[in-house]
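Work Package 4 report. The design task specified in the project plan requires that, given a folded chain encoded as structure tokens, an amino acid be chosen for each position. We show below one input record used in the internal validation round.
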């Protein structure tokens, strides 16, 4: 008798839990058809003019057209992208605040001794938007015509290079290139890649590792010289630029990616709706050729696919950050 009396509350509890779970599922499903019912904000962790900003604006405009709701781009640069990241991590999980960001966002716990948030715990991946190579650019006033010229010079004398910030993929690859070839490369961190490239154009720094799409107009206009791209093959958008491997430095065949995240806890139907529409946009006959003009490859795919991809990037970059002891206090 006593056993039966004890088991009844347990059975009731299970039924209650199952009922609540079903109710939560129905509520979440009910939210998606009404989404979006107000403006959506795309948060960009870098200053305007860079590749992430450009991608966000391309996607945001088409998202607004498709859903008949305003899509606002908010640039919140600073602290290796964590100003924007912390803001989104604390935002309401309702699908109206979306982070458009790069791999750096996934390794903040490696970069900061006291990170304010955990990207794995506090973000829900939506979808991969684009992938892009990096390109090492120099001022035309510099004597470097090839990547090997830069490397030979930096063997005995320091050479500055700018990136979008400490712990950025450019910084990681620059550190690797310097260490593997025993070079005196001095990292200069900016609040986005656009200011770094502008300083190369102005002659304030000699070189920078730029994102391909935002570097392309400067290269075509003769305002900077491209030495090599970090990619497995030459990019059709600027086919005359050799890869690092062709320049004599194999192993640098990865660039960066731009992806969308929302705060953890955002209902799955909303995440899936965002992923499906953003995937449609970047793969569309209108936008895919635009992305190709910038040397970008369209992404797309499910939230689960992007989750796996982003975590793999974080693991790979995290190892380099720890080995190179790259830290932000």
């Amino acid at each position: 008798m006593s056993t039966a009396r004890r088991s009844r509350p347990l059975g009731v509890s299970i039924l209650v839990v199952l009922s609540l779970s079903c109710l939560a599922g129905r509520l979440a499903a009910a939210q998606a058809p009404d989404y979006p019912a107000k403006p959506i904000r795309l948060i960009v962790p870098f200053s305007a003019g860079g590749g992430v900003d450009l991608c966000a604006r391309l996607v945001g405009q088409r998202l607004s057209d498709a859903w008949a709701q305003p899509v606002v781009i908010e640039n919140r640069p600073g602290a290796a992208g964590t100003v924007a990241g912390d803001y989104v991590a604390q935002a309401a999980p309702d699908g109206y605040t979306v982070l458009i960001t790069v791999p750096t966002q996934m390794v903040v716990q490696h970069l900061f001794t006291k990170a304010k948030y955990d990207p794995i715990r506090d973000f829900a991946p939506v979808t991969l938007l684009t992938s892009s190579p990096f390109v090492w650019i120099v001022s035309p006033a510099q004597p470097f015509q090839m990547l090997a010229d830069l490397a030979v010079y930096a063997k005995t004398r320091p050479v500055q290079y700018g990136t979008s910030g400490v712990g950025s993929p450019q910084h990681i690859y620059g550190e690797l290139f310097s260490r593997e070839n025993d070079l005196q490369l001095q990292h200069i961190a900016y609040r986005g890649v656009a200011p770094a490239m502008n300083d190369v154009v102005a002659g304030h720094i000699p070189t920078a590792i730029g994102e391909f799409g935002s570097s392309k107009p400067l290269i075509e206009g003769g305002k900077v010289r491209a030495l090599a791209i970090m990619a497995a093959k030459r990019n059709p958008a600027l086919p005359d630029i050799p890869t690092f491997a062709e320049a004599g430095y194999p192993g640098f065949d990865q660039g960066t990616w731009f992806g969308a995240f929302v705060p953890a806890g955002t209902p799955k139907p909303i995440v899936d709706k965002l992923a499906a529409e953003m995937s449609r946009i970047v793969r569309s006959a209108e936008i895919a050729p635009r992305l190709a003009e910038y040397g970008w490859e369209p992404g797309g795919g499910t939230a689960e696919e992007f989750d796996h991809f982003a975590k793999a990037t974080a693991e790979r970059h995290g190892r380099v950050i720890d080995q190179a002891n790259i830290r932000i206090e």
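Residues 2-31 form the longest helix (30 residues). Validation will be extended to a larger panel in the next phase.
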